[in-house]
Amino acid sequence: MSPKSIRIIGAGLSGLALGQCLRRVNIRTVIYERVKANPTRNNYGITLYKSTYKPLLDTLRMTEDDFCRQVGVHNPDSGALVSDDQRLRVNRAALTSLLESNLDIRFGHKLNNITSYGTSRCVTFQNGTQDLTEDFSILIGADGVHSATRSQLNLSKPVFDLEVLPYIVFNGKRRMVYSNLPPGLLDCFTTPNGIQHVQNGVLLSIKADFWNPDKQTVAVSYTLSRAADKADQALLDRNISDAETLAKSFVDEVATLGQLPAPFDSIFNTDTMSEDRLLHWLMRSSLIDGKVVQDTALNHGVILLGDAAHAQPIPGNGANLAIADALEAAKHMDASGKFDAAAFLEARSDWMNGKRENERALKALHPDGARKARI
Ligand SMILES: Cc1cc2nc3c(=O)[nH]c(=O)nc-3n(C[C@H](O)[C@H](O)[C@H](O)COP(=O)(O)OP(=O)(O)OC[C@H]3O[C@@H](n4cnc5c(N)ncnc54)[C@H](O)[C@@H]3O)c2cc1C
């Protein structure tokens, strides 16, 4: 391995996209990923803007048709892509597999600790291995919303703040056999936004995850979300580990909704939901101070990308921002350890607007007073 190869922590969307961009300009990367290799991890749909993925096509040496065939979600009846003028629904697991090709990814490496001595740096992983560099190599923190790389920089408020927004959101996933689909469900395979229904101010949404013609199965993700009130404080304060144990609250909420129209009545159904994977999500929002991005690049050789720098709540544009960050970052770094943080930040100055726009969109989706009406 060349001593100047770039280390990336996290084989998520930003880390992999960056690895691909740098591969094209013959800069080697080593990507350390916490989890073991698993091609079906993250087997759900995400919505990408065409303006996000088109610049990747050159890097991947792919036509748009090939890209859409490989990662796009298709409608089981018409075979059409789930897309509109601007957006495409893609299966995240398929996108990840595509982006992983030909990269040096060390799975099962969870970053624990970073120690620097002058221009030397030692990165220690939970499995006991270490990565020691004796020059000022670039280290990319692309390890998502709970970034361990960011934690190692000891950034605190107001430089970095992970803010929990006042919304309650539950998510479920369901896989069904095509021949048993409830009436109207395939409407969510006609647009990237899926289908939505508001009942008592509570927003119910169903979106396409994938259609598997070999197994004749269809998968969807569904969410229930609403503005929070004081009674929800425990849900807003919960720990990461409670995400799964709060499934009962999801079912309890659905039980209060009353009769729903098809196909929402089949998906948000308290009997069938118990078979699904249910989670309570926190809507987290964060934004790192641009000056800090410059300082950490200059003084530590560490660059934070994607959710590690600026998490958006879901639904949001986190994947689009993560890929755009990677494409832009690749333009400003070279294998000698140089990174032009100022130029990178200037090009990505929409981080701040993106956060505000996303928060405005969430507010518009969740009318105030919703919960009072429901109770
Ligand atoms: C269900 C769901 C639906 C979504 N839908 C959309 C959508 O429609 N549109 C959109 O734009 N965004 C969407 N998002 C958000 C989007 O997926 C994220 O914003 C995006 O993946 C962020 O990319 P990233 O590279 O910053 O982080 P991630 O993709 O989260 O990757 C981080 C990687 O780092 C690894 N890692 C973490 N800690 C360590 C460690 N200590 N050591 C080593 N590796 C580590 C993780 O395992 C992971 O592989 C959705 C997210 C979810 C969960």
TrEMBL record:
InterPro entries: FAD/NAD-bd_sf (IPR036188). Pathway: Secondary metabolite biosynthesis. Its cofactor is FAD. Keywords: FAD, Flavoprotein, Monooxygenase, Oxidoreductase. Gene3D superfamilies: FAD/NAD(P)-binding domain. SUPFAM superfamilies: FAD/NAD(P)-binding domain (SSF51905). One of its GO terms (molecular function) is monooxygenase activity. Belongs to the paxM FAD-dependent monooxygenase family. This is FAD/NAD(P)-binding domain-containing protein. It comes from Paraphaeosphaeria sporulosa.
